[in-house]
Amino acid sequence: MKPHWIIPIVLALFLLPFGWRFIDNATISGELSYYYLDTFPFSVMPLSSFGHWILASAVTLLFVLLVSRLVGQWTDGSDHLIVLLFFVGTPATIYLSSQPTIYLYALVLVALALNLVSSRYPLLMLLPLAGLLLFDWITVLCASIIITAYLLFVEKKHLAWAVAGLLSTFFIIHSIYTRPFAFEILAERTLLTELFSDLGGVYGISLFVFLLALIGLVITWSKKRMFIPLYCAVLLLLALFFLNRAALLFLYPLLSLLAGYAFLYFWQREWTLPFVHFLTIAVLGYGMLFSALSYVTVVVNDKPTPEMLESTAWLRDHPFYKDDVVLSLPEYGYILGYGSHPFVTPMSADYELRLNVSNALFHSRDLKRTEALMVENEISMIWMDAAMRTLWKSDDGLLYLFRASGRFVKVYDDDGIEMWRLKD
User: Fold this and answer.
1) Which of 165, 323, 347, 362 has the fewest CB within 10 Å, making it most exposed?
2) Contact at 8 Å (CB) between 92 and 247?
């Protein structure tokens, strides 16, 4: 199967989430997207939401084509297409194509390095490895695991010095210019939630793909000597997942390809009853389709709304309020940070402390205590939408102080979004 055969399928899948969302909501999906959009390199790209989506889709397409070339070394024809469809249809691939993340570029560099290993000039793999030095520890560790496993799989152990050089150089750079273990910390999510996209994980793997991948591991066990590097890579990446969720983005290609291999096994094996064969393939195919479409629905309906971004733009452009520290829910921190200064986000170094202060302010009816906490933490603005009002009863906490204290003034009210400011 030539790579160009997969391009129309990939483009259709990538066009669906944003096209469907764009009808009513012309914004990039996901709170975490706005953390990335406010940081380098996206912060220096003067692109619209549509432009960022096109960029993410184009780079993800490149990633898919690089993976397709690797898969094509071991499969051909319809086998290649089936295995690759499982890779393309996983929630993580849809996530990469619809929301900006720096880890997409790291995945492209890893895939490029693997392709160069099998080329006529394998030493060219040093170029993408050098690019990985711009990233964080979790990226370098995951990349080293995947590349080492591949070198062992294709019996090119003599190139392992390149991985050792990557780790050594990165350590030297870290000693001079400290690199974070990970660029992001999804502090508000549990490990189980993040592992499975069905439970709401940003990078999660669908439960269906995970179960099929386990079957793929069992099926390949008859050739375990050949697949030992793959097993080790999966286990090590899974262990890194417990340190940081971003490891899932490096683990999911391996699991999705194993899932595709398992589906291929059921497709090709001899069945005594053709009906059972058809039913099994239909159930597996429906499960994959349902997994992809359910994640597309999440992308379509996820925050932010246009009204949210309009409110942050209003803050950013206001001559008097643009430097105000804004109190809201932590999960809104990424979006608010795109145009203002949120008091707390899941990335805050003192997240627990700030979360406790936020909760104390939300539920306080004591004006003096509320003012003292706001002054102490330099908070001057409170942002809320209609969903946040469910935090309080009809006349409780901050809602009571807004109405009765006379110390707060509403400075913004549009489409259910309100901003209240403490009077000077």
Assistant:
1) 323
2) no
Q: Could you tell me the CATH number of the domain that includes residue 340?
A: 3.40.50.12610
What is the number of domains present in the chain? Answer: 2
Q: 84 near 260, Cβ under 8 Å?
A: yes
What's the residue count for the chain? 424
137 and 225 inside one domain: yes
Q: What is the pTM (predicted TM-score) of this model?
A: 0.84
Note whether 106 and 195 are same-domain residues.
Answer: yes
Domain check: are 247 and 382 in the same one? no
* Nearest-10 Cα torsion for 367, 372, 378, 384: -20
Examine the domain organization and report whether 310 and 246 are in the same domain. Answer: no
Q: Strand 408-414: give its sheet, edge to edge.
A: 341-342, 325-327, 381-384, 417-422, 408-414
Q: Is the dihedral of CA 380, 384, 390, 396 positive or negative?
A: positive
CA pair distance 45, 277, nearest whole angstrom: 51
- Condensed to tens digits (0 to 9), the pLDDT of residues 362-398 reads 888 888 999 999 999 999 999 998 888 877 766 778 8
Strand partners, 224: none
* CA atoms of 56 and 299, how far apart (whole Å): 14
| Cβ partners under 8 Å of residue 216, min gap 6 | 258, 259, 260, 261, 262, 265
- Domain identity same for 99 and 247: yes
Do 264 and 402 lie in a common domain? no
In this prediction, residue 187 carries a pLDDT of 47
* Alpha carbons 241 and 393: distance in angstroms, whole number: 39
Q: Is the dihedral of CA 386, 391, 393, 395 positive or negative?
A: negative
CA distance 83 to 88: 9
Domain span at 251: 3-301
Query: Are 283 and 349 members of one domain?
Result: no
Asked whether residue 235 falls in the same domain as residue 321, the answer is no
Q: What is the predicted pLDDT for the residue at 416?
A: 87
